[in-house]
Design goal:
Blueprint (H helix, E strand, L loop, with lengths): L3 E2 L10 H7 L15 H21 L6 E4 L2 H15 L5 E5 L4 H14 L2 E5 L9 H7 L4 E7 L11 H10 L3 E5 L11 H4 L3 E5 L10 E5 L25 H39 L3 E3 L10 E6 L4 H9 L3 E2 L15 H5 L4 H4 L2 E5 L6 H21 L3 E2 L2 E2 L1
Parallel strand pairs: 1-11, 3-4, 3-5, 5-6, 6-7
Antiparallel strand pairs: 2-8, 7-8, 9-10, 10-12, 13-14
Helix pairs in contact: 1-8, 2-8, 8-12, 9-12
Length: 390
């Protein structure tokens, strides 16, 4: 059975070019990049090249790039460094639709460290309540951490505007750009952020490697204490092979940005319009304009998302009912609940997230599968009668 993969916000295929870039460093070139000898230095030079490639993706200086194990480590490192920089400030701000790497960390800091946390709400389109955010900024605020793009709905936050407001107040600003990288242009110079997180496996690099951008001149406290690696900002022997792969993936991501905005956006819209036309009582979750070009979160009334996924899986279609980090729960997504999406729709919401590898033929296959799946499930649903929700 041919697999149609539409779950790219959960993880991505490792690009063939990335695999080829990595292969020599699994075997032939296995030296430690920190070693003084030429054999190890060969690996060190490739890591330097990877650092430049990642920097180019977000218009940063290579010295501002720190390699980590994942986006979660990058997020945690940024927040802990920020609160260590301002030990006298006991207020921190995030939104109520963040990834668990931030959401759960802020809850932990509130519970165990006594921090006052402002969880900024979103409206029914998933757009951030900027009035609440800006009124919450104070001399006691240590850090604001907000995602660039939501992992479930794809909704984009106005990062540049927010960064300017926090800068005026002398407050550190971190953004989790894990979902945005490689899908929309990112320029840290224009955005003015202090710290920014990326993850390799979201841009066709391997799992287990991430990035934390740290603005030059920013006081930073390491999360992992050890050796001199990453200029003392992240101890531990570098994950050389994956870092090298991430560098190539970042180079490819920059090249493919125009495709994301044209062909991938077109495929997403084609899928969206067909489903809305062919299936009654369904709706898109999130703002239709201010969102990633690859993401479609769509709710089908009177059915369960898990049942939809199981039946699509039989057709070889990979999708998601929300974030991969929370999909083990049968509860509706915290993101959709924060957006006040009605329970009947939130519980039947599916996320399709595309990449440049997807084709129109695959979208046709998805459409042809989803329509009868919804019909079959509604025929069994106690909440559906005579073509309507009851």
């Amino acid at each position: 059975m041919k697999i149609v993969y539409t779950d790219n916000n959960a993880t991505t295929k490792v690009a063939d070019e990335v695999i080829q870039e990595m292969l020599p460093y699994f075997g032939e070139f296995y030296g430690n990049p920190s070693s003084m000898h030429t054999f190890g230095d060969q690996v060190g030079k490739k890591i330097k090249e990877a650092r430049q490639r990642v920097a180019d993706l977000i218009n940063a200086d290579p010295d501002e790039i720190v390699f980590t194990s994942c986006g979660t480590e990058s997020d945690n490192s940024a927040v802990y460094s920020a609160i260590n920089a301002y030990p006298g400030r006991k207020h921190i701000i995030t939104s109520n639709v963040e990834h668990p790497a931030i959401n759960n960390l802020f809850k932990l800091l509130k519970r165990t460290k006594g921090y006052e946390v402002t969880f900024v709400p979103v409206d029914k389109k998933g757009l951030l309540s900027l009035d609440v955010l800006y009124k919450s900024l104070s001399d006691n605020t240590a850090v604001v951490s907000l995602m660039w793009a939501n992992n479930e709905t794809g909704v984009l936050f106005p990062i540049e505007e927010i960064a300017q407001k926090t800068r005026e107040k002398g407050i550190l600003f971190h953004t989790d750009a894990v979902q945005a990288a490689g899908k929309v242009p990112i320029d840290v110079r224009t955005a003015g952020v202090d710290m920014l997180s990326l993850s390799g496996h979201k841009i066709h690099a391997p799992k287990g490697v991430g990035v934390l951008y740290i603005k030059k001149g920013l006081k930073f406290s390491p999360f992992l204490i050890g050796g001199h690696q990453e200029k003392g900002r992240r101890g531990g022997t570098e994950n050389s092979v994956s870092i090298i792969g991430l560098g190539k993936a970042a180079e490819l991501a920059k090249e493919h940005l125009p495709l994301m905005d044209t062909r991938v956006r077109g495929l997403r819209d084609y899928l969206q319009n067909a489903l809305l036309e062919k299936i009654s009582s369904c709706s898109v979750n999130g703002d239709l304009e201010k969102r990633l070009p690859n993401t479609l979160s769509i709710g089908f009334d009177a059915v369960e998302g898990e049942s939809i996924l199981l039946m699509l899986d039989r057709e070889g279609i990979c999708a998601s009912s929300g974030s991969a980090c929370t999909s083990g729960s049968l509860d509706p997504s915290h993101v959709l609940m924060a957006m006040q999406v009605p329970f009947k729709s939130a519980h039947g919401s599916i996320r399709f997230s595309l990449s440049h590898y997807n084709t129109k033929e695959e979208m046709d296959h998805v459409i042809a599968a989803v329509v009868p799946v919804i019909e079959k499930l509604r025929a069994m649903s106690p909440f559906w009668k005579d073509g309507k929700v009851i």
